[in-house]
Amino acid sequence: MPEFQTLPSRRSVSLLGIGCGIGAGALWGLVFLAPELAGMFRPLELTIGRYIAYGMMALIAIAPRLRRLGAKIGREGVIALVWLSLAGNTVYYFLLSAAVQMGGIAMTSLIIGFLPVAVTIVGSRDRDAVPLSRLVPSLLLCAGGGLCIGWQAVRQAMADHAFGQLIGMACATGALISWTAYAVGNARWLVRLPTISAQDWNMLIGVMTGAQALCLVPVALIMGVAHHSGADWMRFLLVSGGVALLASIAGNALWNRMSRLLPLTLVGQMIVFETLFALIYGFMWEARLPTVAEVGAFGLLVAGIASCLAAHRGHRGA
After folding, report:
1. Using 50, 70 and 90 to split pLDDT, how confident is the model at 8?
2. Which of 182, 225, 233, 287 is the residue whose CA sits 20 to 30 A from 116?
3. Are 30 and 271 in contact (CB under 8 A)?
4. DSSP letter for each residue of 247-313
5. How far is C-alpha 147 from the chain's CA centre?
6. How much is the pTM?
């Protein structure tokens, strides 16, 4: 008798994609803690440490097939790796680290919390995407959640005329723009290169990001490296390696897998989990319970995700 292959249902594929999105958010939320854990180092140094570690791990993993993969992606693919590595890693993490150190986790989470809105709006222009009109409730809920998270911090910064916090807001806004470009571009390149696995694409981006981080080393030396104790350097190495392994290697792999399973309008909503986990880790770091506004933010963000899932359910192009 002939054997028939059982294909996975759309529901099982969607659940797998959502699970990957939640896992990526849980790991990516750790990057908000890294600037606090190694606060004695500047954002540029944190960026260099994380991405040199990422690049080394990626190169070791992909070295045997690097030339073959390079031939598959071609010249345009290499150019895409350059700007995706800049937008999604080097520039984004530098701006994020600066925003956390100058503006705090709450304010940074506020700005970054608008990533789902930005990515979903861009993704709604894709062919067969869920109409933007059906996503308005979800976008409003996510935006409301972002406002609840950080409005107190923003108001306090304005009242105190805290120039550093205002610079932190500007850095967080730049990080928002940078990562929106990465999320959209990365999802589209994953679709464009079906013969390249999601993990291999992640490793290629890692190698490119590591090369960019090496180019930043002379800049850091010119700016001068402050004196640090041996314990400080050990913490720096542990934080850099830990974030590279958990967020860049594992988190990016889950994100790329999800990007191939879900439409871009739903991919945008999955970024909410990074914000949720960043807040949880922030509460644990500060050893406090969430405020009423922060509890409200959680509810709004979760309701936004549920609303987005409902909008996609049954849509033919989803």
Report:
1. very low
2. 287
3. no
4. IIIIIHHHHHHHHHHS-HHHHHHHTHHHHHHHHHHHHHHHT-PPPHHHHHHHHHHHHHHHHHHHHHT
5. 19
6. 0.79
- Under a CB-based contact definition with an 8 Å cutoff, are residues 201 and 7 in contact? no
Structure confidence at residue 6 (pLDDT): 41
Alpha carbon distance 233, 222 (integer Å): 19
Quick: pLDDT tens for 152-176. Answer: 656 665 665 567 777 888 898 899 8
Domain positions in the chain are 12-224+232-312
Structure tokens given for 225: 């490296």
Give the dihedral of Cα atoms 182, 214, 95, 302; nearest 10 deg: 50
Provide the 10 A C-beta neighbour count for residue 86.
17
Write down how long the chain is: 318
Out of 13-17, 54-58, 67-71, 72-76, least confident range:
13-17
